[in-house]
Amino acid sequence: MGLTPRAGLRAVEALGAAAALFGQIAARREDVLLRKPGQLSRYDRVIDGLNRLPRPLLALGTIGLFIHAMMEPEAFARRMTGLAAVPEPLWWLLGAVVSFHFGAREAHYLRSGRSGPPEDNG
């Protein structure tokens, strides 16, 4: 009977330590989220830049396809024939990857209470 109270005490101490650690992590994350763009580290700025690339690249890539179709119709037709040979499950996979990317981004902004990415004031 003497082991049970000590084991329970150790479990409570471990839970307390875990709660303290999670509190520290949450406070640190909040500090990072509340930083102004000028206070971000180089790594954070690079990652922010990479996170902003997909939408402009998709838009410019689509416009590029139209330009390519007008300038070189034969080459464009060959590329589209190649795309037609891609199996349908791969198209579904591509759609899922793109949906998860933009869905996760949207969910992040919904959870943080902001309507969009932080504005650059620099």
What can you see in these coordinates?
This protein has 122 residues and is mostly helical. It has a domain at 53-122. Helix content is 80%, strand content 0%. The protein is built from five helices and no strands. It has helices at residues 3-34, 42-51, 54-71, 73-84, 88-112. The longest helix has 32 residues, at 3-34. It is elongated, with a radius of gyration of 25 Å. It starts with a helix and ends in a 10-residue tail after the last helix. The mean pLDDT is 82. It holds the Pfam family GTA_holin_3TM.
Task: State the gist of this model.
With about 120 residues, the protein is mainly α.
Helicity range: over 70%
What is the 3D shape? elongated
The tally of helices reads 5
Q: Please tally the β strands and state the result.
A: 0
Q: Strand pairing plus helix content: what structural class?
A: mainly alpha
Unreliable spans are none
Give the topology string: H per helix, E per strand.
HHHHH
- Kindly provide the radius of gyration, computed on alpha-carbon positions and rounded to a whole number of angstroms: 25 Å
Q: What is the arithmetic mean of pLDDT? A: 82
Q: Compute the separation of the termini in Å.
A: 65 Å
| Biggest sheet overview | none
Task: Report the portion of residues in β strands.
Answer: under 5%
Give the topology.
Elements: H1 3-34, H2 42-51, H3 54-71, H4 73-84, H5 88-112
Helix pairs in contact: 3-4
